[in-house]
Amino acid sequence: MTATASSPSEPRPDLRRQTVVVIGGSSGIGLETARRARAEGADVILTGRDPARLRRASEELDARSTAAFDATDPDQLARFFGDLPNTVDHVMVTAGGSYYSPLAEIDFAKVRGAFDEHLVLPLQIARQAVARVRPGGTLVFMAGAGARRPGIGLTIAGILSAGLPALIANLALELAPIRVNLIAAGFVDTPLSASLLGDDLEQRRNQLRAVLPIRRVVEPTDVAALAVHLMTNTALTGATYDIDGGEQLVSGA
Are 27 and 224 in contact (CB under 8 A)? Predict the structure, then answer.
């Protein structure tokens, strides 16, 4: 019998002696992913818009370096990748939030910003990263899964949720052997969620604890574990991975 190239008993590669870039790595899911990558032995490079918050994250994780800039600015993004001293192994992108508004109240300047952050930014990062990420390394992007069901105020978020998987699949073919994957998250208990929900945050938490099949809310640590898995499992590319605690299975969640 012919032996396969690998077997389930062989350990998957970890992140020792690898470098992980986290764009949007100063808080929330990005920071937690950087923390998990450090625990797996990686060096981390963090970027964010807030220099003070970025400095605190860097000190906590002993980051290799940081860069404070707006990732949606093509010139600043190109300068960041051009200034990287060496080839890196993985790039995780968590920058940007979605946009929710009923039709009558849509701010089209904010809509254009949301499209830039979710559809244009991945293209810009892909074009910059192809010369910096080693063959077999990864690009990991983030999207939302909560807007897949139609609803008032979800038009723009729904378009972004539908468009990103197609973009990621095409990038995986064009950038190969660099691997490209997408994490589609439902509600995650982050500072961003707290700022969006305000006084309704605890009510939302309690609702999800009651109805989700996992009987708890999804935490940044859950998403970070998935992100690191996508980096280390070299068979994964071109796909979208939902992480929502079963939210899409529950009517009205």
Answer: no
